[in-house]
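Q: Joint fold for the lines below.
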Amino acid sequence: MGRLDGKIAVVTGGTQGIGQGVVLRFLKEGARVVYCSRHPKNNESMVPLIAAIPGAVERAHYLRADVGDKGQIQNVVHAAARHFGGVDILINNAQGIAPLRPIETKPDEDYAMTMATGLYHSLWTAQAALPYMKQRGGGRIINCSSHWALQGMAYASDYAVTKAANEALTRTMANEWGQFNILVNCFVPAGDSYAYRQYKVQNPAVCAAIERNIPLRHMGDCEVDIAGGILGLVSDHGRFITGQTIYIDGGCWLVNPAEVEHQAGTDIHAGRSQTATGVH
Amino acid sequence: MELEGRVAAISGATGSIGRGIAMRFARAGAELALIDDDAAEGAALARKIATTGGKCRFIQADFAARGEAQRAIDEAAAACGRLDILVNSNWIRTPWRPLLEKDEEDFRAALEVGLFGALRSMCAAVPHMRKVGGGRIINIAAPYGHTSLLNIADAVTVGYSLQGLTRAAAAEWGPYQILTNLLVPSLVDIPEFQQYRAQNPAYVDALIAMMPLRRLGDPIEDIGGAALLLACDEGCFITGHPIYADGGQFMHPATFKPPAEQRS
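A: Joint structure:
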């Protein structure tokens, strides 16, 4: 008996890192999962991983979508309803990340792209999911924040404002939609995610300090640790928890590894352009 | 059966919240050591859980007395063979009074039971948890510490002090793979709250109408469920923070105004 038997989930940014961990964990718990990413090539590695889970192949459905495009990302939600018959769970995990730059040289385009792929994407998917969740008698929405928003990490102002906006949206959504039995929470990870690995290549000393000091002494495994916490929130166990920011972070930052500062210029996506669409 | 093979000690087990968590953990397959100073209620709860098929024993102890928490935790670990999970749900009711009229003794008594009880049992549990490679500690704080309530400054103080202790323990004991969290239940359908509701029906109705989930929490399914999240594999990377199991009520901080007759 899986904890998500009978549930239909949508996961954005589902082919790498935390999103991948969530897709695989949810499939193992019996869910039907619709997931998306910007580059179909990145889904190639998912295929054998899903095939290794008994019965999961017919419960998984991939779509290509740019989360910064309202039509595309809302279509992913509608696809879940078309393909599997509804939506119970929405995991707004995807996030475009611009190169780290001081505020005074960060272009407006960076802010627009980050907000589009972070905040607006979370808003648009939730708006699309609302009628389906109401139809199903309720639902669970999970948005994503970051330590970087809470601590004002240097050179990532666009990322910080987007993640803080996600938290505020989480609270308002929880407030407005609780009456439909839709519970909305935000998570703050410290995971061995795609973004973290890219960041680590470019800031090895910072990451060594973080990993030396994190109380549980390791970054979270995306499927075991990060997806575990998210599973708890969307399962029956999380049925009275809503409007909150939950730290799935091994106690990261309870002990401050402020030994090294990272450098401006870190580029998680190593020069591949992040286009913003649908935001004015 | 998320807690199959795990042993959980629950202090304050006969209280409304402790009882709800105990019953949920039993259903999840945990072996339980119920700890409380009320021997009659404790034995009755242990019998009740046993009739549902749960493995359970009762250990009498008053955590406010020095040495008792240590004895009870050691006894639990010895009797059950191991200790994986500790839940602290200890609190006492003090008279509702404006802060300027509060007796310092109320602060002392509330801290002794709530904060020092947790502190003593947590420290007692660590060696046992280290023996099995880690563990989970869940401290329960009354919601009075986290929503704006008048006339209950000692309970507010205990709540925040527990948050501090939880954070510090999480930071220090994380390397032992001991995860420590604070669970804050609110608007739970328990006798104490129903008593308050009977005296303030319109106010409580308004509270429920305002909070996001529009309903009271069930101590077993809602609060026990949240505790189970923290105790099982889902909580394996969550440590050091407060989790509110309150149907979203914290977003509308309640100002519980005690009616005149509650001032003692």
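Q: Anything notable?
A: Chain B touches chain A through 40 residues (CB under 8 Å). The two ends of chain B are 46 Å apart (CA to CA).
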